[in-house]
Design goal:
The complex is a heterodimer. By secondary structure, chain A is mostly helical. Chain A is 66% helix and 2% strand. Chain A is built from 10 helices and 2 strands, in the order H-H-H-H-H-H-H-H-E-E-H-H. Chain A has a two-stranded antiparallel ribbon with strand order 1-2. Chain B is globular and about 70 Å long. The model of chain B has no long low-confidence stretch (mean pLDDT 84). Classes of the chains: A mainly alpha, B mainly alpha. At the A-B interface, loops of A face helix 6, helix 7 and helix 8 of B.
Chain lengths: 206, 387
């Protein structure tokens, strides 16, 4: 394995971003990004779960029979998701309610299954950990950017605090209701992809 | 005229390859061909010779829109004074002047923002500037309520031109009608500014604060009232002529019909689409009226709201409608039928025409695909059976 630790960690944050380059995990990116707080929590949860299940699967990788590997991976992810979900319910009940089923649905998040299959099954635990953290943060990065614009333009707030002053509303400014609906998240993700491709020669198709 | 020509010829070299302003070549080209017919002709072998180019097509559309726009200006002023209860005291000139004050800024904002983006994109891509936006820029103000804030017009136009048109490759490549994308964007993003009882009257808020709104005035549109409105305003004659509240250019079915005649005579729009939209709307309106789901009679369905305007100017948009001749019947029929279904069955969306056209724009390629495939397999069978 000639992969360098640094590439494993930085790749998913930039040139190999799971959301904007591999276009994985879009459904949750649309569903939880109407406000910044749930997006942050969701990004953090996915980072922790991806990193930990990557490590576990990487440790077990030589002992897992090839034919039932998906089931083994699912069991590991499901236990991680249950732990995170319980922790959230105990310490951040409001956010857990906002995220509702989407925490549970991390089990089926394409990014997780993809990393377990494509990376953790072939690489050492330390590199798998870095890969998991990198991919989780790459996902969280996009979620936060999308949620930033959606909360700012959709409700005039950031992290729940009003940032657009009242006097602007008195001049006739109004919040963009479309920003609170999922279609606008899709358009913002598309704009991020557009921007990244325009500025990165490596991402452009010939 | 000739001095203008001389001036253009004089500055032209600066805009050509290697000239001082060669980067602004497409902007210059757009203005030159706007002012004078280009004298370049095809050099290779061309098979179809036709005087109708994009510029002439768009000019016909604009010509056809003018009656509806002029009436829209009058009606905006008329509704403004109806709101104030001053219809008996104001003259025709006052009404037109008030209408111009309301409509003209919207028209200017739409053109400036839209053309600005079109020119910028053409420069960036090194394309020629297309004329397509000249029609879109005129339709956008006509599908807006009279009291819409100007910054919203700017935002919606920018959104429609960038995401409705340029990301697909510009004029002729878009999936949805850009003017309707602009309206749909505002409708979902700023519902309070786009629907309700007050947005149809220019200066409503100011008049309300000053206490000038006439006693007993209700601003609801014919669609929102669902056939229950004051019969002195909402009778068939007024609805046909267009003296009812609504978006600026769409109230008058009469002016839409004049536009339809122009479009059909010049061969710009397809009669098949237009006709089948009306058939679809009339049929669904009849069915709903018969079953008692809706009190509006079928002939009224065709003249209130944006039905006539959408059928004439938007459903027939050659870029976003069906290309196959048989497909046009189905495409049009479904637009008319869907528009009435949405109107009647979803009280949250009193205006169904916009959503119906956008929906069928999405499905137009599928309809075309089915007819093309059917034709291919029929001809294949014929070859097989003749062997």
């Amino acid at each position: 394995m000639a992969l360098k630790d640094k590439d494993v960690f930085v790749g998913p944050l930039t040139l190999n971003n799971p959301v904007t380059v591999q276009v994985l995990g879009i459904c949750s990116a649309l569903a939880v990004t109407a406000q910044l707080v749930p997006a942050l929590v969701m990004g953090l949860s996915v980072t922790i779960i991806t990193a930990l299940s990557n490590v576990v699967i990487s440790l077990l990788r030589k002992g897992i029979p090839n034919r039932i590997r998906i089931i083994v991976q699912l069991v590991v992810v499901a236990s991680m998701v249950t732990i995170v979900s319980e922790v959230l319910k105990a310490f951040a009940y409001d956010v857990a309610m906002t995220l509702s089923v989407y925490i549970g649905l991390i089990i089926t998040n394409c990014i997780l299954m993809g990393r377990l299959e494509a990376f953790a099954m072939q690489n050492s635990p330390w590199q798998s950990f870095l890969d998991g953290v990198g991919n989780g943060l790459g996902y969280a990065k996009i979620l936060v950017i999308v949620a930033f614009f959606r909360e700012l333009l959709g409700s005039g707030k950031l992290l729940g605090f009003q940032v657009i002053p009242d006097c602007v509303y008195e001049w006739g400014y109004a919040n963009n209701g479309l920003m609170l609906m999922p279609p606008m998240a899709l358009i913002i993700v598309a704009c991020i992809i557009w921007y990244e491709r325009a500025h990165n020669k490596d991402l452009q198709e010939k | 005229m000739s001095s203008l020509r001389d001036f253009i010829d004089k500055v032209k070299p600066q805009f050509e390859e290697g000239g001082k302003y060669s980067k602004l070549r497409s902007t210059f080209g757009a203005f030159e061909t706007f002012l004078f017919a280009p004298n370049t002709v095809n050099k290779g072998g061309v098979h179809v010779r036709d005087a109708v180019d994009l510029k002439r097509t768009i000019s016909c559309v604009i010509l056809a829109l003018i009656p509806a726009l002029l009436f829209g200006i009058y009606n905006t002023g008329y509704q403004h004074f109806r709101m104030l209860g001053q219809l008996d005291t104001v003259s025709f000139g006052d009404i037109v002047l008030e209408g111009i004050i309301a409509v003209f800024p919207i028209l200017v904002v739409s053109y400036v923002v839209g053309l600005g983006i079109e020119f910028a994109v053409a420069q960036m891509r090194g394309h020629e500037v297309n004329e397509g936006f000249l029609a879109t820029g005129m339709i956008i103000p006509m599908v807006m309520p009279a009291d819409v804030p100007l910054w919203l017009v700017a935002v919606a136009t920018a959104f429609a031109v960038i995401f409705g048109k340029e990301v697909f490759g510009g004029t002729g490549m878009n999936i949805w009608n850009p003017a309707l994308v602009a309206r749909a964007f505002l409708f979902f993003a700023y519902p309070t500014k786009m629907s309700g009882d007050q947005v149809w009257y220019y200066g409503f808020d100011a008049a309300k604060e000053a206490g000038q709104v006439a006693d007993g005035f209700s601003g609801a549109t014919a669609l929102a009232l669902n056939g229950q409105g004051d019969a002195s305003i909402f009778n068939f004659y007024n609805e046909f002529i267009g003296l009812i509240p609504g978006s600026i250019g769409e109230t008058s079915a009469l002016c839409c019909l004049i536009g339809a005649v122009i479009l059909l005579l010049t061969g710009v729009a397809s009669w098949k689409t237009m006709f089948s939209v009306f058939v679809g709307g009339a049929l669904m309106g009849y069915v709903f009226n018969l079953t008692g789901a809706c009190e509006i009679c079928w002939c009224e369905q065709l003249v209130i709201g944006g039905f006539a305007f959408g059928a004439v100017f938007m459903a027939t948009d050659p870029v976003t409608s069906c290309r196959t001749e048989k497909g046009k019947y189905i495409y049009g029929f479904l637009i008319g039928a869907m528009a009435v279904i949405i109107r009647v069955l979803n009280p949250g969306y009193p205006e169904g025409m916009m959503l119906a056209i956008l929906l069928m724009n999405t499905f137009a390629p599928v309809i075309d695909y089915c007819f093309v495939q059917a034709n291919i397999s029929r001809r294949k069978n014929r070859v097989k059976n003749n062997k």
